[in-house]
Amino acid sequence: MNHKTILLYVVIGLLLFGILVGIGYQIRQEIYRTNFNDQAYSDPVLPAEKSAISTLVGSPANNQTTKTEQTDAAAKQSKLFKQQEQLYLDFTQIINALSAGQRPDPQQVSLLIMKQQKLVEVQLVTRDEAKAQIEFLLKVLPEMDHELHRALRTLEQTRS
Fold this sequence. Notes:
Blueprint: H1 3-32, H2 52-56, H3 67-99, H4 106-121, H5 127-140, H6 145-157
């Protein structure tokens, strides 16, 4: 083979390689553009002692509760489930932003930590899970270490 043939093959190879890189980049952009707020998630199952149904049924004293009290308890439980789901969605969005090379807003992270603390207090999120999430944030957001360490200390004080 002569020099011009080899040069032609190299140019064709580089062109094909460039096309493959472009397609890969477009696929990557489409993956990270996915909006997780549109997806429906099933409600998580709670331990029996935390379930609204088990607290409303069972003892003779509960037979005297009115329908509105039962509805209020169920509505409160549903609201807590939605807050838990939103916490997971917000955390997922932060992870996706980090993987795309973007830095999350510190106020958004602070709000996420406050929501997480409230859900730990009502025992919808375990302390171990919350601790793992905060430790992850410490690794990827060293500029927020002061606030994240404070959140870890607060988490340790919520022993029940």
